[in-house]
Amino acid sequence: MKVPFLDLSRIDSELKEELKQKFAALLDKGVFSGGEEVDLFERSIQNQLKIRNAIACANGTDALELALRALQIGPEDEVIVPALTWVSTAEVVRIVGAKPIFWDTDEKGLLRADWVKAISKQTKAVIPVHLYGRMADMESICEAAKASKIAVIEDAAQAFGTTRNGKAAGTWADIGCLSFYPTKNLGALGEAGMCLTQDEEISKKIRVLINHGQVNRDEHVSVGRNSRIDTIQAAFLNLFLGRFDVFQKRRKDLAKVYLEKLGGLPKLGLPEDILADDHNAHLFVVETNQRDELRNFLKEKGIGTAIHYPKIIPDMEPYRSHGDFPNARKLTEQGLSLPLNPWMTKEEVNYVADSIVDFFRQ
Ligand SMILES: *Cc1c(COP(=O)(O)O)cnc(C)c1O
Fold first, then answer.
1. Whose Cα sits closest to atom 6 in ligand 1?
2. 3-state secondary structure 150-215
3. C-alpha of residue 88 to centroid of ligand 1, in Å
4. What does DSSP assign to residue 232?
5. 42-88: per-residue pLDDT in tens?
6. Prediction pTM value
7. Measured in angstroms, how far is the CA atom of residue 308 from the centroid of ligand 1?
8. Distance from the CA of 157 to the center of ligand 1, in angstroms?
9. From the CB of residue 142, how many other CB atoms can be counted at a distance below 10 Å?
């Protein structure tokens, strides 16, 4: 049996047919930027996540950069960022000319609770990341940020579908950022992203920024950029959104199989809380000090895995920053993402789990 980590060519044939029809309809219509599909997508997200403003844009990295620019964060400013995340979170801080201040994560990869110690006079914002789809402690982060008069930008790129007390990831902070990169829980067939905010002024600013600083046709009031979403991607996302609950249920059902089968292994750490509402089961990350051996063993059995991520950001050349980041670093050494996606079968998950049991018994 071969189990790829993720193979997007496996999208259900019924859904593939709908996507093709949608593309054909758009081709006949001739609208490729803006239009009804984009409006519908934004309204659907607003309703589903209970947020006043949803501004679709070109990708999740742009969403984060737009958030920083809308908050007027730039040179001389500092932004607190977890040491372990996808590079975008730190990259955007540098793109706007500000300085990322890295802080360690907790053992599960979320910004460590004592991050407030990193606040200085220059600090303008903190960017908690809901790594692997599990929500950071937004109550206490927002409270501490408010007390220190700094902004919160939520990197919810991995957390579409994650909620706590009914409040969706991405709707807690001043600005929430989503990515619809194809591998995310809600993924386009290309690139797309979104900013979320309750604040009308911020929303207006972002809308102007994504469209060349243009408030009315040919009236440019600021230096913006082009970060509009493709109409075609918005249309595909509208279709995927209609399937989202079904896909989430499949993810959770499969994650449950992993938890049941792998529960008894003393040398393997599991994402115990992955079935809870505050986790969208984006990634199933196990931990073991035999990570590389396990990964090779599974590879020989035809099973694809991934590492999120093999390096902490402050160890990367462009972001080099000294400091101790023990929890984040441990995850880079011990974390292994098992295949988990709506296009896997129970048989495949059983095969992966059985293979892992074999590895630890050998
Ligand atoms: C995917 C991701 C992003 C960036 O999204 P893109 O749409 O790929 O630009 C940012 N932050 C995190 C944590 C991500 O996982």
1. 60
2. CEEEEECCCCCCCEECCEECCCCCCEEEEECCCCCCCCCCCCCEEEEECCHHHHHHHHHHCECCEE
3. 6
4. H
5. 999 999 999 999 999 999 999 999 999 999 999 999 999 999 999 99
6. 0.98
7. 12
8. 5
9. 17
